[in-house]
Amino acid sequence: MDTIQKEKNIALIKDVLRNYLLEKGFRNTPERYTILEEIYNMDHHFNVDDLYLLMMQKKYHVSKATIYNTIEIFLDAGLIRKHQFGEKTLTSSSYEKSYFDKQHDHLVIYKKDSDKEIEEIIEFCDPRIQGIKEAIEDAFGVKIDSHSLYFYGIKND
């Protein structure tokens, strides 16, 4: 993505956040926008520890509590998505930006001979999954808004 488009996207998500905060009656703090911008500059999944370390490295003085509270706001606003990949970390949830992303699924690859230490997370989209979703909708008379599908494994030698 080019720099101009990235700047437009960040301006748009900041507007989404501003409107959300106004609608919910939450404080409109600069820290929330800084955290949001850092998340949307990332190209990978992250956890609270990752985000906290990044903020500290960039000399932003925010507490972990502020990050946790801000993450909850972003989740409710639809700006990020939460995942439970089964990793063994201090903070067991992973997150990813979600405002511009299309529905996708995940292949979680663990390091060999580790206790669920993640080597890699591959995002993929398979049209056959859409067919399964539609079959479920037909069979149960429902409209599925979203789904999450995770495959877990280790690489073959």
From TrEMBL:
<dbReference type="Pfam" id="PF01475">
    <property type="entry name" value="FUR"/>
</dbReference>
<dbReference type="InterPro" id="IPR002481">
    <property type="entry name" value="FUR"/>
</dbReference>
<keyword id="KW-0862">Zinc</keyword>
<dbReference type="InterPro" id="IPR036390">
    <property type="entry name" value="WH_DNA-bd_sf"/>
</dbReference>
<comment type="similarity">
    <text>Belongs to the Fur family.</text>
</comment>
<dbReference type="InterPro" id="IPR043135">
    <property type="entry name" value="Fur_C"/>
</dbReference>
<dbReference type="InterPro" id="IPR036388">
    <property type="entry name" value="WH-like_DNA-bd_sf"/>
</dbReference>
<keyword id="KW-0805">Transcription regulation</keyword>
<keyword id="KW-0804">Transcription</keyword>
<protein>
    <recommendedName>
        <fullName>Ferric uptake regulation protein</fullName>
    </recommendedName>
</protein>
<keyword id="KW-0238">DNA-binding</keyword>
<keyword id="KW-0678">Repressor</keyword>
<keyword id="KW-0479">Metal-binding</keyword>
<comment type="subunit">
    <text>Homodimer.</text>
</comment>
<keyword id="KW-0963">Cytoplasm</keyword>
